[in-house]
Design brief:
412 residues, alpha/beta, Aminopeptidase, 8-stranded mixed β-sheet, elongated, binds zinc ion
Length: 412
């Protein structure tokens, strides 16, 4: 009993030094309407960066860019700020569910006759001069099963899209992305389950705006250590934004990673490491890894003194474990993570992967900074669609990943 009371002040001390973990609150906030899908409609990206800067200040991070928490850079980006409407024979389809506008599409308004083509008839139909500017070409691959034929159709689609607007009807999952270029004509992808293929007319109202050299930003902060070396934890904050009125909340991709990063920032703010721990929320990842590319080309610290980078992108599930991209290049680190996981039983599986330019770690490994990218596996499959929302994201393993990362960094 006496021994227990002797320990009480220490327990109290420990209590004061610990933080309240909060994963879902950050995810909910970042997915709320105010941030507009964290894209380039109604300044979603800028509002998110401002929010993160305020959080970094609250957490007591130090700025990395002199006295600033942001690093500006410019991107080209195609956007759909207003109407995105499609009617087939007068019947409205629901954007985001029944169809997606390809992100590089030009806007278009009007009524069009549908010209249905396939691999066999397309050249004769186009030669016979039946096509004018009130026509839209339609290709239907919903019944085609073999990969070779589908890829031939895709080639034809891309060829025809240089001269005509295209409807592309397919049973493939509808996904959206961000384009930094503009095509000559729109391409509209339609879910085959949403249509009968007997329609003959199309009404379109697509408003589109290409934003050239738009200013966007990375958000960066630091907890200083005693030594000159640094460890970077990164997570991109941007997502796809809006396609007309359709919002892409991006809960798993990547509000989850940003939430984990903010919780880790709070931890290291209270429990500094001997190395500098640097936190970077990259912008414009979805537009082609633009923020991390800019940072590595204009680094705010000596990249040679970065001992390691952990990039977090899509970490809201985990029923089937985690994957580590670049693990084959960083064998020692991957082995260490495996050992920690076996000891503490955080995840039932760790999948080892090689290099891939699929998230922001890529540019760091390109410049010889030891880097890995961690994502979680299993659970909800929503990805780059309106269903990637906070209400259904489990976040049931994110605390395990938080502890795994802290255990791993403690070994440096
Ligand atoms: Zn992502």
């Amino acid at each position: 009993m006496i021994r227990f009371f002797l320990f009480l002040p220490f327990l109290f001390f420990f209590e004061v030094q610990s933080q309240t973990l909060n994963f879902s609150k950050y995810v909910d906030t970042l997915c709320s309407n105010y941030f507009m899908g964290r894209g380039y409609v109604n300044d979603g990206h800028l509002k998110t960066a401002n929010f993160l800067e305020e959080k970094f200040k609250e957490i007591n991070l130090e700025p990395l860019n002199k006295d600033r928490f942001t690093q500006d850079f410019n991107i080209n980006v195609n956007t759909f700020p207003n109407s995105v409407e499609l009617k087939l024979d007068g019947k409205s389809l629901i954007p985001g569910r029944d169809f997606m506008i390809s992100p590089q599409s030009r806007g278009l308004e009007g009524s069009f006759n549908v010209i249905k083509v396939d691999l066999n008839n397309w050249s004769s139909i186009l030669k016979n001069n039946k096509v004018n500017n009130q026509c839209i070409i339609s290709l239907n691959i919903s019944k085609i099963l073999d990969i070779d034929t589908i890829s031939m159709y895709k080639e034809l689609r891309n060829l025809l899209n240089k001269s005509f607007p295209i409807l592309w009807i397919s049973s493939e999952k509808l996904q959206w992305s961000v384009a930094d270029y503009l095509s000559n004509h729109p391409m509209i992808k339609i879910a085959s389950k949403s249509v009968n293929y007997d329609f003959t007319t199309v009404q379109l109202n697509i408003e589109q705006k290409f934003q050239k050299s738009l200013k966007t930003q990375n958000v960066l902060g630091m907890v200083s250590g005693r030594k000159k070396k640094s460890i970077i934890i990164s997570a991109h904050y941007d997502h796809l934004g809006m396609m007309g009125q359709v919002k892409f909340p991006g809960a798993n991709d990547n509000a989850s990673g940003v939430s984990l990063l903010l919780n880790l920032a709070s931890y290291y703010s209270i429990n500094p490491h001997k190395y500098n721990i640097i936190f970077i929320c990259f912008g414009a990842e979805e537009a082609g890894l633009k923020g991390s590319k800019y940072f590595t080309e204009h680094p705010l610290l000596d990249l040679k003194k970065v001992s390691f980078l952990i990039n977090l992108d899509i970490v809201g599930t985990g029923e089937e474990g985690i994957a580590i991209v670049n693990a084959l290049e960083e064998k020692k680190a991957a082995k260490k993570i495996g050992k920690i996981n076996t000891r503490s039983n955080y995840f039932n599986k760790i999948k080892i992967r090689g290099q891939s330019p699929n998230s922001d770690h890529y540019w760091f490994s390109h410049y010889q900074v030891p880097s890995i990218f961690i994502y979680t596996m299993g659970g909800i499959q929503a990805y780059h669609d309106p269903l990637d929302k906070s209400e259904t994201l489990p976040l049931n393993k994110i605390e395990d990943l938080y502890h795994l990362i802290i255990d791993f960094i403690s070994g440096f």
